[in-house]
């Protein structure tokens, strides 16, 4: 790439996320360790709440591993076939993570209903020990992820935060269940808590899928009003119309805009100054840096139509 090309280059289609990468590695190691502890504890204590959360934690491990893959590919440079690079993989992974959460929540809900129909005794002593450890682990992981999000906005970190927020609530729920079982002997509270947890997990998965779906469908990003943006563009002197307007996201905080800008006759002779004003407005007011604008003029368009029409008649 020569210096002139570099001067006109707007956005590099890759992301380097060192903070997010470190956070995900640390979260992955801690989560994998506690998943094993919770799974064994759930089997020994015969607690569905612990077992359900261990499977939720397993989904966290898979989600974190996929997120690591997405971050790796997002840092790769674009190619001649992948001109936007590989940043969209972040969104695909987030969508899969959300889908996994929903499937797991439905499985936990089913097991909870079966346990209500066919109750089993629960070892509350081991439950409370593991639940307290889980509470500490999830508080630490949640704080780590929140700190990382303040440095780098990443949809996979956001999805991981939802995972661990659900785990945090689960740990609290298990402790509540243990206290109730200890004082009342109502073992049925264990599957009831697991069903409540499954609903929280389902809600988190739905929100992740919803956010990822917006990007995959190239919906206008939240916080932007296309009518207002087009009106602002038309307010630039010399611009008489805007059409073929598109505003979308490739991934988190990587937005693109394209539009046809119709200029009046007096400005079409030196259009670049006007177009630069439009680009500057979009950058300064809306933070849109990856902008593609096509210049048009009503009379020139008519001339083009007449030009092609004479060849059609021949």
Automatic annotation (TrEMBL):
Residues 24-217 form the Cation efflux protein transmembrane domain. GO terms for cellular component: plasma membrane. GO terms for molecular function: zinc ion transmembrane transporter activity. Residues 221-297 form the Cation efflux protein cytoplasmic domain. It is found in: Membrane. Keywords: Ion transport, Membrane, Transmembrane, Transmembrane helix, Transport. InterPro entries: Cation_efflux, Cation_efflux_CTD, Cation_efflux_CTD_sf, Cation_efflux_TM, Cation_efflux_TMD_sf, CDF/SLC30A. The chain crosses the membrane at residues 24-43, 55-74, 86-110, 125-149, 161-182, 188-209. It comes from the Bacteria. It is a multi-pass membrane protein. Pfam families: Cation_efflux, ZT_dimer. Its main location: membrane. PANTHER family: CATION EFFLUX PROTEIN/ ZINC TRANSPORTER (PTHR11562), RE54080P-RELATED (PTHR11562:SF17). Belongs to the cation diffusion facilitator (CDF) transporter (TC 2.A.4) family. SLC30A subfamily. This is Cation transporter.
């Amino acid at each position: 790439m020569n210096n002139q090309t570099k001067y006109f280059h707007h956005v590099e289609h890759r992301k380097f996320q060192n903070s997010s990468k470190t956070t995900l590695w640390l979260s992955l190691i801690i989560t994998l360790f506690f998943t094993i502890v919770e799974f064994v504890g759930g089997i020994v204590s015969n607690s569905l709440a612990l077992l359900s959360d261990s499977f939720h934690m397993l989904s966290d491990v898979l989600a974190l591993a996929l997120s690591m893959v997405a971050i790796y590919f997002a840092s790769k440079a674009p190619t001649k076939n992948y001109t936007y690079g590989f940043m969209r993989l972040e969104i695909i992974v987030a969508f899969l993570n959300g889908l996994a959460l929903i499937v797991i929540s439905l499985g936990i809900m089913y097991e909870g209903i079966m346990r209500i129909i066919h109750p089993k005794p629960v070892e509350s002593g081991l439950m409370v020990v593991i639940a307290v450890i889980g509470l500490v682990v999830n508080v630490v992981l949640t704080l780590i992820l929140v700190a990382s999000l303040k440095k780098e906005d990443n949809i996979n970190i956001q999805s991981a935060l939802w995972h661990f927020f659900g785990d945090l609530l689960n740990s609290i729920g298990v402790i509540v269940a243990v206290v109730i079982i200890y004082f009342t002997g109502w073992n049925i509270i264990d599957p009831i808590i697991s069903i409540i947890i499954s609903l929280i997990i389902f809600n988190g998965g739905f929100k992740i899928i919803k956010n990822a779906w917006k990007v995959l469908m190239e919906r206008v990003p939240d916080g932007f009003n296309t009518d207002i943006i087009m009106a602002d563009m038309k307010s630039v002197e010399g611009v008489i119309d805007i059409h073929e307007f598109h505003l979308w996201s490739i991934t988190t905080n990587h937005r693109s805009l394209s539009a046809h800008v119709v200029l009046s006759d007096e400005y079409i002779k030196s259009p670049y100054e006007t177009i630069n004003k439009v680009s500057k407005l979009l950058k300064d007011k809306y933070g849109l840096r990856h902008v593609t604008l096509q210049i048009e003029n009503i009379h020139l368009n008519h001339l083009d139509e007449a030009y092609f029409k004479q060849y059609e008649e021949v």
